[in-house]
């Protein structure tokens, strides 16, 4: 029987390192961020719903959603963020179900979702793995990766549940403040217990 693993953590804690490593091991990965990007593309129902609510101001010159513009709006106003989640969530959830159903022959399927807890995807999984790193490392990674100021990075971090709460709810915690090699050793140890 397929076991569905929820892989989560905070923004910029290093989930993608683990997700990419599992993909190399031929474990199906359902990436909630990728799905979000897909359902927000022009021509998709998610796109229409978002533009209908937020207006043309969020579109770029090609007519696609400008993710940076939209992010500036929703991360500076918690009401707008909640509204965006409410609008897009049914589209994301439907796509996740569809992708899970394509991998029911696999022993493990991983749903990689930074907001697994926040958006209620916890009910879709059998176990939760949380990727943790210390707050200073997280902040620096996010600022560098997304070219954000310290206040913009902090605003994004604060819109997610605190990492400690996620760790308290996890079946497994992977510490990712050190080297990639140290992190992947933890992944291998975890996999050895998960796969017969």
Strand order of the largest sheet: 2-3-1-4-5
Helix content: 40-55%
**Which structural class is indicated by helix and strand composition?**
alpha/beta
| Name of the level-1 CATH class of the largest domain | Alpha Beta
CATH H level, superfamily name of the largest domain: P-loop containing nucleotide triphosphate hydrolases
The counted number of beta strands is 5
Low-confidence stretches: none
Looking at the structure, the CATH topology of the largest domain is Rossmann fold
What is the terminal-to-terminal distance? 12 Å
For the biggest sheet, the summary is: 5 strands, parallel
Helix/strand order: EHEHHHHEEHHHEH
Radius of gyration (CA) equals 17 Å
The averaged pLDDT comes out at 93
Specify the CATH architecture of the largest domain. 3-Layer(aba) Sandwich
Strand content range:
5-15%
- With helices defined by DSSP (H or I, 4 residues minimum), what is the helix count? 9
Total count of domains: 2
Describe the structure.
The chain is α/β, with parallel strands linked by helices. It has helices spanning 15-24, 32-39, 45-54, 67-74, 78-101, 135-146, 150-158, 163-169, 180-194; strands at 3-9, 29-31, 108-112, 127-132, 172-175. It has two domains: 1-28 and 111-196, Rossmann fold; 35-102, no CATH class. The chain has nine helices and five strands; from the N terminus they run βαβααααββαααβα. The termini are close together. It is globular, with a radius of gyration of 17 Å. It has a five-stranded parallel beta sheet, with helices on both faces. Helices cover 53% and strands 13% of the residues.
